[in-house]
Specification:
Length: about 220
């Protein structure tokens, strides 16, 4: 569904005259932001399905990294669009980007635990805790999202405390700084599903050309 929506916004961008000032709702920059937001939400659905299917943490980390990348792209596009009512929207996109950035490190830390890389596990959990804390401090209008971020922050903090204690007492491995951690390649599954050419007229008709003015309806 979200991929189809992204494709629809891409189609609309091709139909709209970029020099038209008829409505800011159809500016190319805003359509880019809407397309990228739909793609990011589609990627999030791929991640959620992978969690339900019990896929490995290494795969989940890459899917989460893809979601972070797409949400960051959508936030940048939404800010560039200059839409007057986009403040809350941009906040949510930035919160989601931070959440999935933290989730990437959190999932990868599980891989480190399985592989016996206990110092790296602590380093990735420290990175996850920092991003989760940043996301939780954003002033979001969505109480549900804010509560979810706070809960995730609590889970990461508890895991970090346990990992630090185990490493300090038993393993005594060097904890790398964040910039020394190996980057995680994104697995981006979401794409804008462009509609077939038959969906578009040739030449395209003006949007809403069939609508009658209100004065005619009132006559």
């Amino acid at each position: 569904m979200f991929q189809n929506a992204a494709g629809c916004f891409e189609n609309m961008k091709q139909l709209v005259d970029p020099l038209s000032t008829a409505s800011s709702d159809f500016s190319p920059r805003l359509l880019d932001a809407l397309r990228d937001t739909m793609a990011a939400q589609a990627q999030e659905m791929f991640y959620e399905k992978a969690v339900k299917d019990n896929l490995k943490d290494a795969t989940l980390a890459r899917l989460a990294r893809g979601a972070e990348e797409l949400y960051s792209k959508a936030a940048t596009a939404a800010e560039a669009a200059g839409y007057p009512r986009a403040t809350d929207w941009v906040l949510v996109l930035n919160a989601k980007a931070l959440f999935f950035r933290a989730t990437t490190e959190f999932r990868r830390s599980n891989v480190c635990l399985q592989e016996g890389s206990f110092g790296e596990q602590v380093g990735r959990l420290e990175a996850a805790a920092k991003d989760a804390a940043a996301a939780a401090t954003l002033r979001l209008s969505s109480g549900k999202l804010a509560a979810s971020l706070k809960s995730f922050q609590t889970d990461v903090a508890a895991r970090l405390t346990s990992a630090q204690r185990d490493n300090d007492v038993a393993y005594v491995q060097l904890v790398p700084a964040r910039d020394a951690l190996a980057p995680i390649a994104p697995a981006i599954m979401a794409k804008a599903a462009l509609q077939p050419d038959a969906w578009m007229d040739s030449p395209p008709r003006p949007l809403f050309a069939g609508l009658m003015p209100l004065t005619l309806h009132s006559a």
